[in-house]
Amino acid sequence: MDLVLSDLLQRIDMVKTDIKEHCITVSNLPCFTNLNTAVISVFIVDSLLDDLNDLINHKPVLILEVKDQITALYEELNYSRFFLKDIDVQHNKELIECVMRLRDLAYEAEYIINSFVVGEVPVWYLTMRLSSVILTNRVIRTKLSEIKMNLGIGRLEVVESPREVSSQRKNIPMVDEIIVGFEDERIQIASQLVGGPHYLQIISIIGMPGLGKTTLAKKLYNDSSVVYHFDKRSWTVVSQTYQKRKQLIDILSPITDLSRDTILNMDNESLAENLYKNLKGRRYLIIMDDMWSKEAWDDLKRYFPNDRNGSRILFTSRLKDVALQTSSHGIINELRFLSVDECWDLLQKKVFQKEGCPPKLIDIGKQIATNCQGLPLAVVVISAVLANMEKKESLWQEVASNLSSYIFENPNKNILDLSYMHLPIHLKPCFLYFGAFEEDRDIPIRKLLSLWIAEGFVQKREHKSLEDVAEEYLMDLINRSLVQVSKRRSDSGVKACSIHDLIRDMCLRIAKEENFLNVIKNQFSIYEQHQHLCIHSNFGNSKSRLFGLHIRSLLGYFVSPLFIVPSLKLLRVLELLTANGIKSHLVMGIEFLVYLRYLAIPWLPSSISRLDSLEFLVLGRADVIPPLLLNMPKLRCLHVVTLVSFSKNCQRSQMNSLQTLSCVHIIHLKDEDVLRCFPNLRRLKCTYNQSWNRCPDLSFLAQLESLSLVFLGNSKEIKLPMNIKKLTLSNIRLPFEKMSLIGTLPNLEILKLECDAFEGRSWNTKDDEFQKLKFLKLERLKLAQWNASSSHFPMLERLVLQNCYNLRKIPSELSDIPTLQMIEVHCCDIYVRNSVMKIQQEQLDNGNQELKVIISGTVWNFILKRTFSLSTRWWRRTAGTLVDAGSSIHSSKSKFI
């Protein structure tokens, strides 16, 4: 008996120890009690729902013992998610607290379930905690429902202001600001206001916050030619919360003889009636400053009569969509950044007024102006700081080193913060994620969208791919003037983007406050809980350790021999491709990262096949693509920077998820057959080996939309999928007589023929070919004569000719193509240049000033370079000016397509 009792007591002690260990483990659950917005709340609930759905439908074996509880939790949370609609625009304290509780509950559930899957907690503990989570969720959901019902969320559209409206004087714009730059823009927009059509026209000034939209509008409002031209002028500030009564009073007050008291005592119907009567038959200008939605215009437009007398409505907005949606016949003016010289000029005038800048401060002053990156708001805020500071070089140097901190300590920071606050909730994590990228670097769009998808930011939509939805998100941020386009694709889509340094600083500040993202440059504490979603680290030789199951993403620019992956078991994104000098033996335990969705790494890990959740794999190099990669169920993108071939052991199978594959080397016949494993492939970049002596056949890839193909073999035929939209061919050496193989592709929009893609001296295009082609590039072809008519390229928008040394001219018939927007000629014969200039002149004679022509280099320049080799640069003479054309030299470096 004593032995049994002793054994029982030992077992009890073991259980107590086990419970204590797991309680300690789970106590590491991140605490996020100080958040003041709902962005992470909705995102974390959506993320958990995706994970639960994946476990239930695709990995049931992992949760066999608790499947009923997991299913119940999914149903409960899915129901609760409905009550989170529209909460991001509410400021009710009780509602926000309730949402925060639901967020913390979702964090807890995600943490416990994921810890169970990776073996951190036992099943009994999971069962106990899930029961508690489900019960708590029901209580929170009930409370949410009650609060939303009391607030009437979903019914509030227009906010009515009280009868006491601020005085009229505040709405009459006074031009007392010092304005630098934008003189050309002022002249252009002024001519749009006083000239143009007779009908009521909407003119918009669009740009990111702080660019000077309102300042320019004030300048135009008080311009003498504008004052003289219009009988009535009025100004109203709409702002992010549209108040109909305030807008009616603002607009009516300056254009009526009624007293202020009379106006304030009118109801909305009387205000609208008087406004219409005062404008009827008069030529008027109404400026609506800081427009945030088209709903404000839709509600007011019926009060503005269209008497076809040249009246105008001028909007200012940071949202391009507002301008696009308000009028199909309007004019959109997108405001540019100031130049460095203009920034310096503005800074001097603001700081020194009419006095000049002391010589000792000129260099550091210009550095400060440069650091403002063309944003007038930044210049104005910093100028106010400098104007109230001693004119000492050391003090100015301190300002130059801490520019963003001075700006965000200023009340003007609210101008930038409003853009974030007004974002729909699904865009907020996408926007904050920009802080994870390096400063002053272009961000490749393919990489950005892939990361968004892997993070779970992109919501699924019926009949649309996640990539297409993610691109819509990006365009929304661009149209809101928060993101700038830095490079465009040949189809005019966005290839790379960037954000202003001040916008990036705002991202980092808000992201850190919300425990969303932290950029770490030095040592940090392993007990910090603010690295919830993404860490972009630069450790150098730091002794810091990366640890924490709460970390979901790691974008690394560091080298650390102590970096141990198993301590980050819940990672979803691991970016080490750009890690400086990282070695394979420094990163251990990748096989434990079962939740990993995005992996970018210099080499192929041997344990890659264990990562069942992986969707995006980017490799610096790989000798071969092993068979195990063909069996990864969710992999949708495989990109290898260097050329890679299939392993000899690869067998044909079905890999339904893969959509992007590059850069693969096709050597053997079975390699082409392996491609049949990828029926859903949309993008392919491949090179056929020189030993290939048969017709390359990719016609079986029915979903393929983009193909880049280098052919080093010997064939006079090619078979391509009919769905192809973008095609780049090189070295195939097909005769031009075979061009119909390409021209008859029904969906082809972009065609790039490079480096002997076709051979021959003459190309005669045919009827009914290239009917949808929008972009055509001919590079390094031996073509001498090109005959075509406008009907052969009825939708062509852009033509690029590069290094076609034998071509004598381009067909003059191309001038009759109504869609043609641009012709580029680089390093071609001078006669080609002359024929292009002739086409442009014909377009001008016909009244078309839209055709743009870019010409650089001539064959003579190329001959000089080849013959004498006196310089590493190419020079061209255009309009009598010697210009450096070194940037036009072709680069064949592989990129993430």
UniProtKB/TrEMBL annotation:
Domain Disease resistance N-terminal: 44-118
SUPFAM superfamilies assigned: L domain-like, P-loop containing nucleoside triphosphate hydrolases
Predominant location: cytoplasm
GO molecular function, one term: ADP binding
Pfam families to which the protein is assigned, alphabetical: LRR_14, NB-ARC, Rx_N, WHD_DRP
GO biological process, one term: plant-type hypersensitive response
Gene3D superfamilies: 1.20.5.4130, Helical domain of apoptotic protease-activating factors, P-loop containing nucleotide triphosphate hydrolases, Ribonuclease Inhibitor, Winged helix-like DNA-binding domain superfamily/Winged helix DNA-binding domain
Domain Disease resistance protein winged helix: 437-506
Protein name per the record: Late blight resistance homolog R1A-3
